[in-house]
Input
Amino acid sequence: MPENSLFARQSIIALLAVAGLTLHLLLRFVLPVPWEIANLPSQDVPLLVVLILGGIPLVLDLLLKLCRLEFGSDLLAGMSIVTSVILGEYLAGALVVLMLSGGETLEAYAVRNASAVLEALARRMPTRAQRKTKGLIEEVSLDSVNVGDSLVVFPHEICPVDGTVLDGHGVMDESYRTGEPYMMSKVPGSTVLSGSINGDSALTIRADKRAIDSRYARIMQVMRTSEQRRPRLRRLGDQLGAFYTPLAVGLALVSWLVSGEANRFLAVLVVATPCPLLIAIPVAIIGSISLAARRGIIIKDPAVLERIDTCRVAIFDKTGTLTYGEPRLTEVIAPPGVSTEEILSLAASLERYSKHPLSRAVLAEAQRQGLQLQEASHISEPAGQGMRGTVGARTSG
Output
């Protein structure tokens, strides 16, 4: 069953159980009504409604699990519901319905929230693009963009496809794609990535790939595939229930046989129903996901939280995860006969013309030391080859 449908159904059952129990207490202690329906006291009618409308769907789900030989922690709850109806103990059955549906509601809520990242990625991708044809700009659907089309990316827009800059000078924020928290310079001939955020200047780009073939779309497809193929890990409570459930049922049968009273069977089942597991596990999962999110950690699959203690190796993307993405100059090594202040002044005089992230670290250290910067000329910055230029009578690189 889809996660949204599961969440909606369990929520409805939980709300129904709360309403039924509340009405039962009102009719029993606040507004007692001396009438019966088919020999059923008025205060028990709401409980019976809860058991019929809420208990039956829950029990049917548990029967399906039983047919698949899945002995989970909630199987005892289903047996308690059925036994309470047979013995006329409707209050106990309604309480178990509330605990079972409430726990599953919280768990479905946690799983649904874990998919929020994928939904955010889907919402973030534009559905329209600005195509430039013979000097005219028209808005078209993203699906109609073909390879070779000229597109205009307006300031602060999201780049719709992978392409090459034809006209314009500016920067793009590619951190959403690459994880690197830097504004990347874009000039004619530069490549642009779909999903990147344009800066303050409009850029005209040539579409090198269709939208469905762009890197952003491929990332989305990989994430959707991994979401659909998510391994269905058994919850800790279900692992315990594999041996706990038969033991509890055996004890309940023994108490019934010894006492000769069927109510003892129900009492043992209700007491043995792992209510703390039914409620505590989803609550702990939601708390963990929320706490991690506040600290910038997105948990895609809540099931891994119950197996994280078995993890022996962790792989991190360094920038922005283990570091702040803010380089800092820690040491200046100068050749003999040249002071570190002079070297730093020359380097900073040149680096102020660069957009490279390391240039900010050099400039920050020069400013911290109060060094005087000089004018530079003949500046060049070939990709991957560093920066060169003339500062005063010196050529630096």
